[in-house]
Design a protein that fits this description.
By secondary structure, the chain is of the alpha+beta class. The chain contains 8 helices and 3 strands, in the order H-H-H-E-E-H-H-H-H-H-E.
Amino acid sequence: MNITSEQIKSLREKTGAGMLNCKNALVENNGDFEKAINFLRQKGLASAEKKSTRKTQQGIITSYIHTGSKIGVLIELNCETDFVARRVEFQTLARNLAMQIASSNSVQYISLKDIPQNVWDEELKIEQQREDLLNKPESIRESISKGRVEKTLKTFTLLNQSCLRDPDLTVEDYIKNHVSLLGENIQIGKFTKFVLGENN
């Protein structure tokens, strides 16, 4: 199958993967663009999972001020080496994540594991008292309640948001694509969002 440089370039722009990986993905999938995207995502996510336990002590702190200067975000994005921290792709990722936080009104935490236990407990208590669950057996009520609470709390976490840059991905998968592209573990250290007049 003859794969053109235009096809490779388009796939690279869509996924952020390396040129050789894009060519191989297209060859493996007989030039099918959508299948090649899925192939790279699966490969990238598998690669990202392997890197997720590595230490991330380098990185950058960057800011984003929304138009009108009424919303601002500071974010710490960590990687393994200073070399990757200086790369344009990494710095663009940090800025895009800051923009994502600025535009997401509900986001308060990075991931579900960052949500305090008392918040989980309070939401679970409310959910279990809902009318449609009162007559169900306790084990079923608990299972349904936990599922609903997790779904609700995901709306407060950055990693579970639909990515602004690629709505087909969650923010977590968007970061994992960059882990695959840059070859290092990438983690959000912390973020702070400022809204003018919010504390007045």
